[in-house]
Design goal:
GO molecular function, one term: undecaprenyl-diphosphatase activity
Catalytic activity: di-trans,octa-cis-undecaprenyl diphosphate + H2O = di-trans,octa-cis-undecaprenyl phosphate + phosphate + H(+)
Pfam families: BacA
Mean pLDDT: 89
Largest sheet: 2 strands, antiparallel
EC number: 3.6.1.27
Number of strands: 2
Strand content: under 5%
Subcellular location: Cell membrane
Radius of gyration: 19 Å
Strand order of the largest sheet: 1-2
Order of helices and strands: HHHHHEEHHHHHHH
Structural class: mainly alpha
Helix content: over 70%
Distance between the termini: 38 Å
Length: 273
Protein backbone atom coordinates (compact mmCIF):
# COMPACT_ATOMS: atom_id res chain seq x y z
CA UNK A 1 0.00 0.00 0.00
CA UNK A 2 1.41 3.38 -1.02
CA UNK A 3 2.33 5.95 1.64
CA UNK A 4 -0.12 8.52 0.26
CA UNK A 5 -2.95 5.98 0.49
CA UNK A 6 -2.11 5.43 4.17
CA UNK A 7 -2.26 9.20 4.74
CA UNK A 8 -5.70 9.35 3.10
CA UNK A 9 -7.01 6.53 5.31
CA UNK A 10 -5.63 8.29 8.42
CA UNK A 11 -7.33 11.54 7.37
CA UNK A 12 -10.62 9.68 6.91
CA UNK A 13 -10.14 8.15 10.37
CA UNK A 14 -9.59 11.61 11.84
CA UNK A 15 -12.72 12.94 10.11
CA UNK A 16 -14.74 9.98 11.43
CA UNK A 17 -13.38 10.37 14.97
CA UNK A 18 -14.30 14.06 15.08
CA UNK A 19 -17.61 14.10 13.23
CA UNK A 20 -19.12 10.89 14.64
CA UNK A 21 -19.64 12.50 18.05
CA UNK A 22 -20.20 16.12 17.12
CA UNK A 23 -23.72 16.75 15.74
CA UNK A 24 -22.46 17.54 12.24
CA UNK A 25 -22.92 14.20 10.37
CA UNK A 26 -19.97 11.85 10.04
CA UNK A 27 -21.36 10.12 6.95
CA UNK A 28 -21.91 13.47 5.26
CA UNK A 29 -18.33 14.53 5.94
CA UNK A 30 -16.92 11.17 4.84
CA UNK A 31 -18.82 11.37 1.55
CA UNK A 32 -17.55 14.91 0.98
CA UNK A 33 -13.93 14.12 1.87
CA UNK A 34 -14.03 11.11 -0.44
CA UNK A 35 -15.10 13.42 -3.26
CA UNK A 36 -11.78 15.27 -3.08
CA UNK A 37 -9.51 12.56 -1.68
CA UNK A 38 -10.81 9.10 -2.54
CA UNK A 39 -9.04 5.97 -1.33
CA UNK A 40 -7.96 3.42 -3.93
CA UNK A 41 -10.71 0.83 -3.45
CA UNK A 42 -13.93 -0.39 -5.04
CA UNK A 43 -17.14 1.58 -4.49
CA UNK A 44 -18.61 -1.40 -2.60
CA UNK A 45 -15.65 -1.53 -0.22
CA UNK A 46 -15.67 2.24 0.36
CA UNK A 47 -19.37 2.19 1.22
CA UNK A 48 -18.69 -0.60 3.72
CA UNK A 49 -15.52 1.12 5.02
CA UNK A 50 -17.40 4.34 5.85
CA UNK A 51 -19.63 2.33 8.20
CA UNK A 52 -17.20 -0.24 9.62
CA UNK A 53 -14.62 2.41 10.51
CA UNK A 54 -17.16 3.48 13.14
CA UNK A 55 -16.21 0.41 15.21
CA UNK A 56 -13.06 2.24 16.27
CA UNK A 57 -15.16 5.21 17.32
CA UNK A 58 -17.51 2.98 19.32
CA UNK A 59 -14.66 1.54 21.36
CA UNK A 60 -13.83 5.06 22.52
CA UNK A 61 -17.27 5.26 24.17
CA UNK A 62 -16.78 1.88 25.82
CA UNK A 63 -13.38 2.90 27.20
CA UNK A 64 -14.39 6.37 28.44
CA UNK A 65 -17.72 5.33 29.99
CA UNK A 66 -16.75 1.79 31.01
CA UNK A 67 -17.80 2.22 34.65
CA UNK A 68 -21.22 3.56 33.66
CA UNK A 69 -21.78 0.80 31.11
CA UNK A 70 -20.57 -2.35 32.85
CA UNK A 71 -23.60 -3.96 34.58
CA UNK A 72 -21.56 -5.57 37.35
CA UNK A 73 -20.48 -4.45 40.81
CA UNK A 74 -17.81 -5.77 43.17
CA UNK A 75 -19.70 -4.96 46.37
CA UNK A 76 -19.67 -8.16 48.45
CA UNK A 77 -18.69 -10.19 45.40
CA UNK A 78 -19.54 -9.78 41.74
CA UNK A 79 -23.22 -8.92 41.33
CA UNK A 80 -25.54 -7.44 38.75
CA UNK A 81 -25.79 -3.66 39.10
CA UNK A 82 -29.52 -3.01 38.65
CA UNK A 83 -29.35 0.72 37.69
CA UNK A 84 -26.91 -0.10 34.88
CA UNK A 85 -29.12 -2.93 33.65
CA UNK A 86 -32.07 -0.52 33.60
CA UNK A 87 -29.93 1.87 31.53
CA UNK A 88 -29.21 -0.92 29.04
CA UNK A 89 -32.92 -1.74 28.79
CA UNK A 90 -33.56 1.90 27.87
CA UNK A 91 -30.73 1.84 25.33
CA UNK A 92 -32.09 -1.30 23.67
CA UNK A 93 -35.63 0.09 23.59
CA UNK A 94 -34.34 3.27 21.96
CA UNK A 95 -32.51 1.21 19.33
CA UNK A 96 -35.59 -0.70 18.16
CA UNK A 97 -37.01 1.90 15.69
CA UNK A 98 -33.73 2.55 13.83
CA UNK A 99 -32.81 -1.13 13.98
CA UNK A 100 -36.04 -2.28 12.35
CA UNK A 101 -36.14 0.47 9.70
CA UNK A 102 -32.42 0.07 9.00
CA UNK A 103 -32.65 -3.67 8.35
CA UNK A 104 -35.76 -3.34 6.18
CA UNK A 105 -34.85 -0.26 4.16
CA UNK A 106 -31.03 0.02 4.27
CA UNK A 107 -30.52 -0.60 0.54
CA UNK A 108 -33.45 1.60 -0.47
CA UNK A 109 -32.25 4.47 1.72
CA UNK A 110 -28.75 4.26 0.21
CA UNK A 111 -30.23 4.17 -3.29
CA UNK A 112 -32.45 7.21 -2.76
CA UNK A 113 -30.44 9.43 -0.41
CA UNK A 114 -26.73 8.55 -0.66
CA UNK A 115 -25.82 11.66 -2.68
CA UNK A 116 -24.46 15.18 -2.29
CA UNK A 117 -27.81 16.92 -2.75
CA UNK A 118 -29.33 15.04 0.21
CA UNK A 119 -26.25 15.66 2.36
CA UNK A 120 -26.24 19.41 1.68
CA UNK A 121 -29.98 19.78 2.31
CA UNK A 122 -29.93 17.82 5.59
CA UNK A 123 -26.84 19.68 6.79
CA UNK A 124 -28.65 23.00 6.38
CA UNK A 125 -32.06 21.78 7.59
CA UNK A 126 -30.82 20.28 10.86
CA UNK A 127 -28.48 23.22 11.38
CA UNK A 128 -31.55 25.47 11.43
CA UNK A 129 -33.41 23.03 13.70
CA UNK A 130 -30.50 23.02 16.19
CA UNK A 131 -30.59 26.81 16.41
CA UNK A 132 -34.38 26.82 16.89
CA UNK A 133 -34.22 24.10 19.57
CA UNK A 134 -31.52 25.99 21.46
CA UNK A 135 -33.52 29.23 21.27
CA UNK A 136 -36.50 27.31 22.67
CA UNK A 137 -34.34 25.90 25.48
CA UNK A 138 -32.70 29.21 26.39
CA UNK A 139 -34.68 29.88 29.57
CA UNK A 140 -36.01 26.38 30.02
CA UNK A 141 -35.43 24.23 33.11
CA UNK A 142 -34.42 20.72 32.07
CA UNK A 143 -36.43 17.97 33.77
CA UNK A 144 -33.99 15.12 33.10
CA UNK A 145 -30.55 15.77 34.58
CA UNK A 146 -29.55 12.16 35.31
CA UNK A 147 -29.72 9.04 33.17
CA UNK A 148 -31.76 7.39 35.92
CA UNK A 149 -34.43 10.10 35.49
CA UNK A 150 -35.00 9.23 31.82
CA UNK A 151 -38.33 7.32 31.46
CA UNK A 152 -38.64 4.31 29.15
CA UNK A 153 -41.17 6.21 27.03
CA UNK A 154 -38.70 9.06 26.55
CA UNK A 155 -35.99 6.58 25.56
CA UNK A 156 -38.28 5.24 22.83
CA UNK A 157 -39.08 8.80 21.74
CA UNK A 158 -35.36 9.54 21.36
CA UNK A 159 -35.00 6.29 19.44
CA UNK A 160 -37.65 7.41 16.96
CA UNK A 161 -35.59 10.53 16.30
CA UNK A 162 -32.61 8.29 15.64
CA UNK A 163 -34.46 6.90 12.59
CA UNK A 164 -33.99 10.30 10.93
CA UNK A 165 -30.23 9.72 11.00
CA UNK A 166 -30.56 6.90 8.47
CA UNK A 167 -30.63 9.68 5.87
CA UNK A 168 -27.04 10.80 5.09
CA UNK A 169 -26.15 14.27 6.35
CA UNK A 170 -28.62 14.22 9.24
CA UNK A 171 -26.19 13.14 12.02
CA UNK A 172 -27.14 10.33 14.36
CA UNK A 173 -25.91 12.25 17.40
CA UNK A 174 -27.59 15.42 16.15
CA UNK A 175 -30.98 13.77 15.67
CA UNK A 176 -30.99 12.07 19.07
CA UNK A 177 -29.70 15.13 20.91
CA UNK A 178 -32.47 17.22 19.34
CA UNK A 179 -35.06 14.59 20.32
CA UNK A 180 -33.72 14.39 23.87
CA UNK A 181 -33.66 18.16 24.37
CA UNK A 182 -37.20 18.55 23.06
CA UNK A 183 -38.47 16.35 25.90
CA UNK A 184 -36.51 18.28 28.54
CA UNK A 185 -33.25 16.35 28.77
CA UNK A 186 -30.16 18.38 29.69
CA UNK A 187 -27.41 18.77 27.09
CA UNK A 188 -24.97 16.61 29.07
CA UNK A 189 -27.40 13.72 29.54
CA UNK A 190 -28.63 14.04 25.94
CA UNK A 191 -25.04 13.69 24.72
CA UNK A 192 -24.26 10.76 27.05
CA UNK A 193 -27.37 8.81 26.09
CA UNK A 194 -26.59 9.50 22.43
CA UNK A 195 -23.09 8.07 22.87
CA UNK A 196 -24.48 4.95 24.54
CA UNK A 197 -27.07 4.45 21.80
CA UNK A 198 -24.22 4.33 19.30
CA UNK A 199 -22.87 1.07 20.72
CA UNK A 200 -25.60 -1.37 19.59
CA UNK A 201 -26.67 0.73 16.59
CA UNK A 202 -23.20 1.10 15.08
CA UNK A 203 -22.18 -2.46 15.88
CA UNK A 204 -25.35 -3.62 14.13
CA UNK A 205 -24.84 -1.31 11.14
CA UNK A 206 -21.23 -2.44 10.76
CA UNK A 207 -22.18 -6.12 10.94
CA UNK A 208 -24.93 -5.57 8.35
CA UNK A 209 -22.51 -3.90 5.92
CA UNK A 210 -19.88 -6.63 6.42
CA UNK A 211 -22.46 -9.35 5.79
CA UNK A 212 -23.58 -7.63 2.59
CA UNK A 213 -19.99 -7.09 1.44
CA UNK A 214 -18.94 -10.60 2.40
CA UNK A 215 -16.10 -11.66 4.70
CA UNK A 216 -13.58 -11.91 1.86
CA UNK A 217 -11.07 -9.07 2.15
CA UNK A 218 -7.78 -8.52 0.39
CA UNK A 219 -4.70 -7.87 2.51
CA UNK A 220 -4.83 -4.24 1.40
CA UNK A 221 -8.47 -3.88 2.49
CA UNK A 222 -7.77 -5.38 5.92
CA UNK A 223 -4.92 -2.90 6.38
CA UNK A 224 -7.20 0.00 5.39
CA UNK A 225 -9.84 -1.07 7.92
CA UNK A 226 -7.34 -1.49 10.77
CA UNK A 227 -5.61 1.86 10.18
CA UNK A 228 -8.95 3.63 9.85
CA UNK A 229 -10.42 2.12 13.02
CA UNK A 230 -7.32 2.78 15.15
CA UNK A 231 -7.22 6.41 14.01
CA UNK A 232 -10.96 6.83 14.60
CA UNK A 233 -10.59 5.40 18.12
CA UNK A 234 -7.79 7.76 19.18
CA UNK A 235 -9.46 10.86 17.74
CA UNK A 236 -12.86 9.84 19.17
CA UNK A 237 -11.48 9.70 22.71
CA UNK A 238 -10.24 13.28 22.38
CA UNK A 239 -13.44 14.49 20.69
CA UNK A 240 -15.81 12.98 23.26
CA UNK A 241 -13.84 14.48 26.15
CA UNK A 242 -13.85 17.86 24.39
CA UNK A 243 -17.61 17.81 23.71
CA UNK A 244 -18.56 16.78 27.26
CA UNK A 245 -16.47 19.66 28.59
CA UNK A 246 -17.75 22.13 25.97
CA UNK A 247 -21.49 21.61 26.55
CA UNK A 248 -21.16 22.24 30.28
CA UNK A 249 -20.69 25.93 29.45
CA UNK A 250 -22.00 26.27 25.89
CA UNK A 251 -24.99 25.26 23.78
CA UNK A 252 -25.15 23.57 20.36
CA UNK A 253 -25.78 26.71 18.30
CA UNK A 254 -22.22 26.83 16.98
CA UNK A 255 -22.70 23.39 15.43
CA UNK A 256 -25.97 24.56 13.89
CA UNK A 257 -24.28 27.51 12.19
CA UNK A 258 -21.40 25.26 11.08
CA UNK A 259 -23.84 22.85 9.43
CA UNK A 260 -25.57 25.66 7.55
CA UNK A 261 -22.30 27.13 6.28
CA UNK A 262 -20.96 23.71 5.25
CA UNK A 263 -24.20 22.84 3.47
CA UNK A 264 -24.07 26.08 1.47
CA UNK A 265 -20.39 25.52 0.64
CA UNK A 266 -21.17 22.01 -0.61
CA UNK A 267 -23.97 23.31 -2.84
CA UNK A 268 -21.77 26.04 -4.32
CA UNK A 269 -18.58 23.96 -4.63
CA UNK A 270 -20.22 20.99 -6.32
CA UNK A 271 -22.45 23.18 -8.46
CA UNK A 272 -25.68 21.65 -7.20
CA UNK A 273 -27.62 24.81 -8.06
Amino acid sequence: MEFFEVIKVIILGIVEGITEWLPVSSTGHMILVDQFMSIDATDAFKEMFFVVIQLGAIMAVVVIFFKKLIPLTNNNGIRIHKPTMVLWYKILIACIPAGVIGVLLDDKIDELFYNYITVSITLILYGIIFILVENRSKNRTFTVNKLSELPYRSALYIGIFQVLALIPGTSRSGATIIGAMLIGTSRTIAAEFTFFLAIPVMFGASLLKILKFGFVFTQNEVFILIIGMITAFIVSVLTIKFLMSYIKKHDFKAFGFYRIVLGVVVIITLGLI
